[in-house]
C-alpha cells in the first residue's frame, strides 16, 4: 500500500546454517546435539545437518580444482551456500577427530574464509579439543563467534537419556538462544 508507511512489511532473509558433527558414531551425542539445534532453530533461520563426513576422501591438495572429488565439492558448496556453520565435536586423545579435521581441510582453501562459525559442546570435559578446534578454525579464517558457548552435557549418555535431556525446556531454550545469538552475529557483519 503505497504511502502507508505503517503497513510496510519488512522482510528479513532466511538464514541457512550448516551444522557439522565431528562424530561418526550412530549413537553420537554430538550428532544428537546438531539435530537438536535443527529442531530448535528460531524463526527466520534453518539449520541443516551435514551427513557426509564419513564419505569424504582424505584431503589431498593435488586433488583440487577440476580434480576435486564430488563429495568434497558437495561440502564446499554447502559451506559456501550457508550463512554460517555450527560445529559440535568430540575430543579424541586431547585433539580434534581426524574426520572433522579432514572436512575442515577440504573447505579451508576458500569456503571457510570469512564464514561465520560457532562451536557447541556436548561434553563438559573436552577442553583440549575445544581450544584446538577454535585455533584451527581461526587459522582457516572462519569468523568465529565466541561470545556464546552452548554446552549441554551429554557425555556418556545413551540415546533415550540424550533425547530426554534435549527435550527439556531448558535445553531447548539454550539451543534456541545460542542460535539466535549466532544469527545476530551473522546479520551484524
Ligand atoms: C578414541 C577415543 C579417544 C577419546 N579421547 C578423549 C579425550 O582425550 N578426552 C575426552 O574428554 N574424551 C575422550 N574420548 C571420549 C569422547 O570424546 C566422548 O565419548 C564423546 O562424548 C564422544 O562423542 P560422540 O557421542 O558424539 O561420539 C575419547 C573417545 C574415543 C573413542
From TrEMBL:
It holds the Pfam family FMN_red. The keyword Metal-binding does not apply. Residues 1-26 form the signal peptide. GO terms for molecular function: FMN binding; oxidoreductase activity. Keywords: Signal. Residues 16-127 form the NADPH-dependent FMN reductase-like domain. InterPro entries: Flavoprotein-like_sf, FMN_Rdtase-like_dom, NAD(P)H-dep_reductase. One of its GO terms (cellular component) is cytosol. This is NADPH-dependent FMN reductase. The lineage of its organism: Bacteria, Pseudomonadati, Pseudomonadota, Alphaproteobacteria, Hyphomicrobiales.
Amino acid at each position: 500500500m503505497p504511502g502507508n508507511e505503517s503497513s510496510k512489511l519488512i522482510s528479513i532473509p532466511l538464514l541457512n546454517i550448516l551444522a557439522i558433527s565431528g562424530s561418526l558414531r550412530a549413537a553420537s551425542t554430538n550428532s544428537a546435539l546438531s539435530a537438536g539445534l535443527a529442531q530448535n532453530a528460531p524463526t527466520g533461520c534453518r539449520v541443516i545437518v551435514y551427513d557426509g563426513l564419513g564419505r569424504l576422501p582424505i584431503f589431498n591438495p593435488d586433488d583440487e580444482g577440476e580434480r576435486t572429488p564430488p563429495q568434497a565439492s558437495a561440502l564446499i558448496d554447502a559451506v559456501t551456500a550457508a550463512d554460517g556453520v555450527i560445529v559440535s565435536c568430540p575430543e579424541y586423545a586431547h585433539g580434534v577427530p581426524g574426520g572433522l579435521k579432514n572436512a575442515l581441510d577440504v573447505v579451508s582453501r576458500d569456503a571457510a574464509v570469512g564464514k561465520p562459525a560457532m562451536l557447541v559442546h556436548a561434553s563438559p570435559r573436552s577442553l583440549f579439543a575445544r581450544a584446538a578446534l577454535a585455533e584451527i578454525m581461526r587459522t582457516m579464517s572462519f569468523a568465529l563467534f565466541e561470545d556464546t558457548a552452548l554446552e549441554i552435557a551429554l557425555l556418556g549418555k545413551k540415546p533415550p537419556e540424550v533425547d530426554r535431556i534435549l527435550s527439556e525446556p531448558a535445553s531447548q531454550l539454550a539451543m534456541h538462544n545460542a542460535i539466535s545469538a549466532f544469527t545476530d552475529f551473522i546479520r551484524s557483519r
